[in-house]
Write a structure and sequence with these properties.
eight-stranded mixed β-sheet, four-stranded parallel β-sheet, 13% strand, Glucose Oxidase, domain 1, alpha/beta, 566 residues
């Protein structure tokens, strides 16, 4: 795709002309030479930090991206943004900052790229919210850019990963695992750098972003350590320089059909429910109309093919070993399930990128053929009903069954629920209700990995259901329903429930209901009083004041028409 463009559309304003001598003087102090001022200026947004193994190696990868930029005739400028660790903060008040960090990452990349006048940028991410945060910034800024995934972690001893540790906590509480056994799992589950090892949120979103066309082919399915990932970073740097010269921008790529491709790939991989939240948010930034019902529409015809954790058997590194997601995408394309003509950051279409990709080797059983899927339709099920008038999102693989009915056991917040589960209060037949954890009520919409892992560890995974206005880690499995909207803090029906109410969840009918009459719900609503707004100052208070419904991506900006930032 060749266009007549000014390759230095943004940086000319910052570094050209006599009046910009002060800017050039400042830049000379950070390594600029005379020739550099005439090159495309390319930012490299790194999410490096030692706060999590997901991102501990990204500083080195960012340097490789800089080498790619400089070698292709651009001038790289490295800068950093934040990351937080979902795995470390899980089950604590700190987890409230997780979804908030998605917005902060998008805002900070926008801020630096906009202020510095970069002509394009590379964004590198590892932990869960890095990926959507970077993609949101790419869509919002609409400057030539490429996303690079930091890569998946290698398996721990006995193919353990972080979910092994969370579930071991539940097993220990149930008396099924000794304290020494728990310590041994803790010590051997996380062997080094990289994002959590199953088809959890990080690997899900990396795959979705590649399917959107914002990453180079193969970027989402590589281990964090090794030459493949380093080469991916260098190629990404080179690619952005080319994109700047060709004038190819994210919104040329982020069409509605591209989002449909991403949803298709997420379903085929058995990916995280968080993909629903994040794809809605990225689409919002791109000015593309995407709704919960699009996931249902696409899900009716797309099967689950990959037997990956948490509900399956295999880790992401094992999928990498047989070729990653490219052969899967080719299979979907040949089956008529992907749009072939969607443009990508290679400058070529999806079909062109996949043309020479070899199919999976015979005998592998990680990815099933289209003729013999693990599940004939989507595991991501959008539910409506008198408990979720604006929708809810369930992860139903079929192993949990497709219908659950039981008595509500209501908890105000995650900590009380987890304590009750570990203490044996929750019993077979219960529907655990965790409320006050929505985007505004939390604030921050915490993930419920601790309670779902405790349920599994205690052997109740197929005997209880859990519903919440919060969300789930990609590592959660079982009969779980999240993103219930409206949330309790806004007077949603989940806030009106009482322990003992009968709740039914039907994945076939796509319904979630409480057995109460409309009159009884009105009576309870009339008596309902909102909880006090979040009392503290700072990022959480700002987020609580600005955030919208989970059913629309929990974004902190009003929905607005498609536009370009120049």
């Amino acid at each position: 795709m060749k266009r007549k463009v000014d390759a230095r559309h943004y940086s000319r304003v910052v570094v050209d002309g006599d009046k910009q001598a002060p800017a050039r003087a400042m830049l000379r102090a950070v390594g600029f030479q005379d020739a550099d001022f005439g090159k495309p200026q390319i930012g490299v947004a790194s999410t490096w930090g030692n706060v999590t193994p997901c991102n501990a190696h990204i500083g080195e990868l960012a340097q490789e991206a800089c080498s790619g930029v400089d070698g292709a005739g651009g001038k790289s400028v490295l800068f950093n943004t934040i990351t937080v660790s979902d795995g470390i903060s899980m089950g604590t008040p700190g987890m409230r900052y997780s979804l908030v960090s998605r917005e902060l990452i998008a805002d900070s990349i926008e801020t630096v790229v906009g202020a510095a006048g970069f002509d394009g940028f590379v964004a590198l991410g590892g932990c869960d919210k890095n990926m959507p945060g970077c993609a949101m910034a790419m869509a919002r800024l609409n400057r030539p850019s490429v996303f690079v995934y930091g890569g998946t972690i290698r398996p721990g001893t006995q193919r353990r990963d972080i979910i092994s540790v969370f579930e071991a906590v539940g097993a220990h509480a149930a008396g099924k695992l000794t304290g020494q056994g728990l310590l041994e799992i803790e010590r051997t589950a996380i062997p080094g750098p990289g994002s959590c090892g199953g088809m959890y949120t990080a690997n899900t979103m990396a795959s979705a972003i590649e399917a959107l066309g914002l990453s180079l082919p193969g970027s989402s399915a590589q281990e964090a350590v090794g030459q493949d990932k380093r080469a991916d970073c260098r190629r990404a740097g080179e690619a952005v320089v080319r994109l700047v010269r060709e004038g190819l921008r994210p919104r040329d790529i982020l069409t509605r059909r591209a989002f449909e491709n991403a949803i298709t790939v997420v379903i085929a991989l058995g990916g995280s429910t968080n993909a629903v939240l994040h794809l809605l948010a990225i689409a919002h930034e791109a000015g593309v109309r995407l709704t919960l019902d699009d996931f249902s529409r696409i899900g009716r015809r797309v099967p689950v093919l990959a037997d990956l954790k948490p509900s399956g058997r295999y880790l992401m590194s094992e999928l990498v070993a047989i070729g990653g997601i490219q052969p899967l995408m080719k299979m979907l394309l040949q089956g008529g399930l992907l749009h072939p003509d969607c443009l990508t950051v290679t400058g070529h279409t999806m079909q062109e990128n996949l043309e020479n990709v070899p199919m999976y080797m015979s005998g592998q059983d990680i990815v099933h053929p289209l003729a013999a899927p693990l599940k004939k339709d989507s595991h991501l099920v959008v539910l409506y009903g008198n408990l979720a008038p604006e929708g809810a999102v369930a992860k139903i693989t079929g192993k949990e069954g497709e219908r659950f009915e039981g008595r509500a056991r209501v908890f105000e917040g995650e900590e009380r629920a987890t304590s009750a589960i570990l203490g044996g209060t929750v019993r077979a037949g219960d529907v655990v209700v965790i409320r006050g954890e929505g985007p505004r009520g939390g604030p921050g919409m915490r993930e419920m990995l601790s309670p779902t892992s405790a349920i599994t560890g205690r052997g109740l995974g197929d005997k209880v259901a859990l519903i919440t206005d919060g969300r789930f880690s990609g590592g959660s499995h079982g009969f779980v329903v999240g993103h219930i909207s409206p949330e309790a803090a806004l007077g949603g029906p989940i806030g009106l429930l009482r322990s003992g109410d009968r709740i039914s969840i039907d994945a076939v009918k796509r319904e979630i209901r409480v057995e109460l009459t409309a009159a009884e719900l009105r009576r309870r609503r009339a008596a309902w009083k909102p909880a006090r707004a979040y009392a503290h100052a700072g990022a959480l208070a700002k987020y609580a004041a600005l955030v919208g419904s989970a059913s629309r991506g929990a974004v902190t900006q009003p929905i607005q028409p498609r536009r370009r930032i120049s």
